[in-house]
Amino acid sequence: MHRYVAAIAVPAVLVGVLTGCGADSAPQAGGASPSVNANSVHARCQAQEWPQPMPDVEGRTFEPLGKDLMCFDNIEAVAPDGRDVMSDPASGLGAWTVKSSTPGPGTRVRITTPITLELEKARGE
Asked: What is the pTM of this model?
């Protein structure tokens, strides 16, 4: 029973965080107040012009929900042993540094472009 509650509670909290993250409180065109859907991360990402240059995340802490990567929906983050860190919550997302990215920094990418990040253990881990 506890597993079922956690499986529902964690995604609900994550959705709440992502929805509120960086929301603009200014009124939208026409004076209408912003809605949760219009200010969701997904809506704001979709509203941007694509393709965009791949951000340079090499040498930085791996943060899949950070401002540089939050718009991409096809990220594979590969640990030195070959496992996908995104699919393994026990791996500790903050315990990694981005060693390299494919496509490389500056390459024009879309939201759906497959992105592979080669990770290494963060210093001090």
From this structure: 0.66
pLDDT digits (tens, 9 = 90+) for 26-37: 334 444 444 447
**How far apart (Å, rounded) are the C-alpha atoms in residues 4 and 97?**
32
CA distances from 1 to 5, 6, 8, 90 (A): 7, 9, 11, 21
**Together in a domain, 81 and 102:** yes
Its domain, for residue 112, covers 50-125
Let me know if 18 is exposed, middle or buried by CB neighbors in 10 A (0-12, 13-18, 19+): middle
Q: Total structural domains in the chain?
A: 2
Angle at alpha carbon of residue 96, lines to 99 and 56, rounded to 5°: 40
Q: Are residues 116 and 83 in the same domain?
A: yes
Q: Are residues 61 and 33 in the same domain?
A: no
